[in-house]
Task: inverse folding
């Protein structure tokens, strides 16, 4: 039973590192050399490197504005007086 827990933890850490590596390669904020160095850090420092790079990348990204789902586009009314001319 303890072996199963160890394998599950190792698998979870490896999956998280793969996830962070994918995020880093897809990030447009870094040049290719920077991406490779950060991915190298992720894999050389197993959990600490992945967590550090992931948190740093999240802090650098600006949140995108949320779309207002309640907005309904209206037909043009023609100005203040309603004239379409």
Result:
């Amino acid at each position: 039973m303890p072996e199963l827990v160890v394998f599950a933890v190792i698998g979870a850490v490896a999956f998280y590192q793969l996830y962070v590596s994918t995020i880093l390669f897809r990030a447009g904020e870094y040049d290719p050399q920077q991406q490779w160095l950060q991915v190298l850090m992720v894999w050389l420092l197993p959990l600490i490197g992945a967590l550090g790079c992931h948190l740093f990348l999240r802090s650098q990204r600006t949140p995108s504005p949320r779309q207002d789902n309640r907005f309904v586009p209206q037909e043009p009314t023609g100005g203040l007086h309603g004239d379409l001319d």
Summary: The chain has three helices and no strands. The first helix runs from residue 2 to 26. The helical segments are 2-26, 32-44, 46-60.
